[in-house]
Amino acid sequence: MRGFAVLVGFICVLLASCPAEAQFEVRIKDIASVQGARGNYLFGYGLVIGLNGTGDTLRSAPFTQQSFRSLLDRMGVNIRNIDARTRNIAAVMVMAELPAAANPGSRIDVTVASMGDATSLSGGALLLTALQGADGEIYGAAQGPIVVSGFQANGRNESLAQGVPTSGRIANGALVERASPAQMQQSESIIFELHNPDFNTAVQVADVINVMAKQRYRMAIARELDNRRVLVRLPAKFPASRIIAEVGSVRVTPDTAARVVVDERTGTIIVGRDVQITPVAVSHGSLNIRVTETPVVSQPAPFSDGRTVTNTESQVEVSQEGDAMTVVAGASLQSLVAGLNRMGLKPSGIIAVLQAIKTAGALQGELVVQ
User: Fold this and answer.
1) Max avg pLDDT among 15-19, 84-88, 205-209, 321-325
2) β-strands 259-263, 366-369 pairing
3) What pLDDT digit, counting tens, does each position of 148-184 carry?
């Protein structure tokens, strides 16, 4: 609870210290993307070699053994009748994202993750692996040494692990062999899509683009289509890349919804800037019941035929706290947090109070419980 109050209080102080005009201004390219200019996911199956006894157990990972034998068969080495027991090889899945503007010859990063029972990929190198897209076409090939950030050390009675040693990355580890299918097409207009759809934000984006365009091109070029899309017409003799660069640098003040996000698993509470609570009286009481079991040994009298018996005495304590009524009202984030802090609640208590206030209709905003 104290950490929540300090965090939100720090945000309120930070916002109050910023100039009002440039308080929430962001670039258009940070809140929107060009329609059609997107990346594509690639994946492939490969083998990692050079592991120091931390690879797959071939008997427990038959796919690794089959891949190992097929690899050597293609190289003219026949081990089909030999029981190989090496643990210096591991089967992995290779993943990458092909950018929209990627062309043959460019390089991209890849992520490598183990599929079998390998304990670590540290020190290993990925063999040549074809990367294919969802359409089954091959768009790249990956190969190179793997960088692993995690480690694991095992002893007889104790083991120590940090991070995930069975996955790693290869910087610039893949060569693009085929251009991305999502290439920007030459047209008379482009569409910007907002990451967080909002009608007010779409209107503001169109307005600030037109202000810039009237100074730069002597004409208005933008209009909003709906709460997500803003259409920008390309002026004559100006390429699309230049228009995208200039529009993306324009700053705008996006509108945000009044929303409270609650994560019950971790106790995280995020309150939006425009959330308000109409005056409401809140009483949050907690009933605590504590049961204590104390073992008691009953001894028989001397020279008797009795037996020692262990009994249990139970003690039950009941306490109830926080039964006072508190008026909570907030026209701003700072006053709302101050009202909740006066009640001395923990995050779990704040979650229960917010849900009850929303049910009562006093929370003027959206409550999202995850």
Assistant:
1) 205-209
2) parallel
3) 887 666 666 666 667 788 899 999 999 999 887 766 6
25 Cβ contact partners less than 8 Å away, ≥ 6 residues apart = 251, 252, 253
Task: Supply the pLDDT for residue 95.
Answer: 95
Instruction: Give which of 339, 321, 319, 322 is closest to 330, Cα–Cα.
Output: 339
Q: Is the dihedral of CA 208, 209, 215, 219 positive or negative?
A: negative
% residues pLDDT > 70 (the chain)? 75
Residue 91 buriedness (CB in 10 A; 0-12 / 13-18 / 19+): buried
The answer to whether the CB of 366 falls within 8 A of the CB of 257 is yes
DSSP states of 327-361: EEEESSHHHHHHHHHHTT--HHHHHHHHHHHHHHT
Q: Which fold has domain 23-37+184-252?
A: Alpha-Beta Plaits (3.30.70)
Query: Residue 42: which residues within 8 A CB-CB, separation 6 or more?
Result: 95, 96, 97, 98, 131, 132, 133, 139, 140, 174
The number of CA neighbours under 13 Å toward the Cβ of 45 is 9
Query: DSSP secondary-structure letter at 235?
Result: P
175: closest CA among 278, 104, 271, 254? 104
Q: Which amino acid is at 97?
A: E
φ, ψ of residue 134 to 5 degrees: the values are -65, -20
> Looking at the chain, which residues constitute the CATH 3.30.70 domain(s)?
23-37+184-252
